[in-house]
Fold this protein.
Amino acid sequence: MERYFVAFLTLFVLVNPLRSQTLSADVVFEERVYNFGTILEKSGKVTHTFVFKNNGKTPVTISDVQSGCGCIGKAVSKDAVKPGAKGKVTITFDPAYKSGFFSKEIIVFSSNGQQFNRIWVEGTITPAEHPVEDDYPYNFGSGLYLRLKVMAFGYLKPGETRQMELHYVNNTDKEMTLGFLLAGGKTGLTFTSPGRIGAKARGVMIVSYTMPQTATENVTFALSPYVNNKKLSQNVEVKILNEKKLNRP
C-alpha cells in the first residue's frame, strides 16, 4: 500500500542544517529533480509528487521534510512504508512574488531523522504585474511612489563613503520631471536627480555620503522631492550615524 507524505513549500520557515545524518540507501526516489518548466506567477501554486521505493529489509517512516531554502511547511504521514513498497512525497511550490529561474533543494528525513535523501524542484517563473504599492509602498503625491521614506546609512567611520539606492516610480500616464533638493541648504550628500521619467516608468537614484574626518556627531538630511517643478509635502529623511559616538561613555 502506498503511503503519502505531503510537504508544502511556503516562504518563511528556516530549517536546521544537516548534522550527523547519513544518506539513506533504503529510500530510493524514482527521480530526484523535477523541472516545472515555465510557470506563471499569476496561476498560483504548482505541485509535483516524488515516488520512492523502500529497498531495505525493514519498514521506513519519513520523519520530516524540509527545505534548505527556508521555505517549507509539511504534513507528514506517520505510517511506515514496508520493504518493497512505494511511498510518495508531494511538493507544492508557491511562485508568489518571485521571478526567473529557481532551484529548491528539499531534504527528506527517515529513520527518526538519522538518515536523509535530497530531491529538487526547479523551473522558471514568469512574473505577474503587481500593484505599484507592493514594491513602492510610499505615496509622495503627484503620482510619485518611493520604496523608502527613510534612508538609514548606518554607522560610518570618519572618511568612509557609503551609497544607497532610492527606487522610484512614476505611476501616472504622463511623463514627469523628478528632482530632489537638500532641504535647509545643507551639503555633503551627493546624488543626481532623475530628471524626465516616462509614464509608468521606474528607476533608481544613487545617493552617496562621505563622513567628514572631523565629524563627531550623527548627521540627518531631508531630501525634498519636486515633481514637475512643484515641491511635494513629504521629504525623504536620510540618517547617517557617526561611529565615533560608539566609543563615547
Remarks:
- The first strand starts at residue 3 and ends at 8.
- Residues 132-135 form the longest helix (4 residues).
- The chain has a mean pLDDT of 86.
